[in-house]
Amino acid sequence: MKAIKRLLWVAGVVLGLAVLAGLVFWLRPVSCFNELMYARLRFAGVESHSVRVAGHRVHYYAEGPSGGRVVVLVHGLGGRADDWRELAPYFAKAGFRVYLPDLPGYGRSEQPTDFSYSVSDEAGAVVGFLDALGLKQVDLGGWSMGGWIVQRVAIEHPERVARLMVFDSAGLYAKPLWDTRLFTPATAADLDQLDALLMPNPPKVPGFIAEDVLRRSRKNAWIIHRALDTMLTGKEATDTLLPQLKMPVLIIWGSEDHITPPDLGVKMHHLVPQSELDIIPGCGHLAPVQCAVQIAPKVVDFVKQ
Q1: pLDDT in tens, 193-244
Q2: 230 lies in a domain?
Q3: Any domain includes 202
Q4: Residue 17 in domain
Q5: First-to-last CA distance in the chain?
Q6: What is the DSSP track for 47-84?
Q7: Whole-number mean pLDDT of the chain?
Q8: From start to end of 64-208, where are the E strands?
Q9: How much is the pLDDT for 17?
Q10: Residue 286 belongs to domain spanning
């Protein structure tokens, strides 16, 4: 009889925990997905650290051999360091030390209210990050807004960048052909439109997950608005500056990118004579995540040169 009671008690506890876990997942699915991703990264041996940059805490991941040549990858608007989770391991396996910072305001970094979130100030934060870690010269890559940021770093501090990589990059003066308010979606319909811009054939997002994404979007919208307000002026565009670059430059683009269309990559290639351009068929703006297998051999060969 006691054994049966004990078994029933254990079963009740397990059921209660399962119900609680299900409730937490229902209410905060994005947080649950994030925790699973953090666990996956830890299991893969990816290090998680923070450093002070201009008085603010900046979180970053590091992977690969500590003595390897350094690659630093910078995420885009509304993104975070985890966005490189599919591509970064290829560099690490090839013997490179890879650093993935969360820009100020994004991911697990601090969100200072006294920061402009402009491209130039984020570029300054990237240089500050290199200084904080004692990284004198690196192979530097950036995606979308991150591509714009690393262009500014390479232009203003060419001695710090051995090779430059840009992925579906912003930076050239071009008026968006889509509604930029979608970067801070307010409704499920907005979220569907944004997904359609970001990737070919986007999956349908369940309603409870969409609601949590929208909740987080509302919380962080002020950062996106500050960044967009400065970006859309065109004052920090790199059209006239890119020809100054002397280091090797690799330009990677998804052929189905509707956020920064491939013709921008072609124009960037023409502005940087020593650059290489690779347009990946069937990939959208999220190419470094969704098309990492196709991209990896090209970028690893590039940094090995």
Answers
A1: 999 999 999 988 898 999 999 999 999 999 999 999 999 999 999 999 999 9
A2: yes
A3: yes
A4: no
A5: 73
A6: EEEEEEETTEEEEEEEES-TTSPEEEEE--TT--GGGG
A7: 92
A8: 70-74, 97-101, 138-143, 161-167
A9: 42
A10: 28-304
Q: Among candidates 51, 37, 133, which has minimal Cα distance to 85?
A: 37
| pLDDT for the residue 38 | 87
Query: Within 13 Å of residue 265, how many CA atoms lie on the same side as its CB?
Result: 29
Distance separating alpha carbons of residues 231 and 158, to the nearest angstrom: 22
**Whole-number Å distance between alpha carbons of 272 and 23:** 53
Question: Could you tell me the CATH number of the domain that includes residue 105?
Answer: 3.40.50.1820
Evaluate if residue 183 carries a pLDDT over 70.
yes
Residues 6+ apart with CB under 8 A from 227: 77, 105, 117, 118, 119, 122, 145
Q: Quote the pTM value.
A: 0.92
Fill in the DSSP letter of residue 206: P
Confidence of residue 145 (pLDDT cuts 50, 70, 90): very high
**What per-residue confidence (pLDDT) applies to 28?**
75
> Using CA atoms, how far apart are residues 301 and 189, in angstroms rounded to an integer?
41
- When divided into structural domains, the chain yields a total of 1
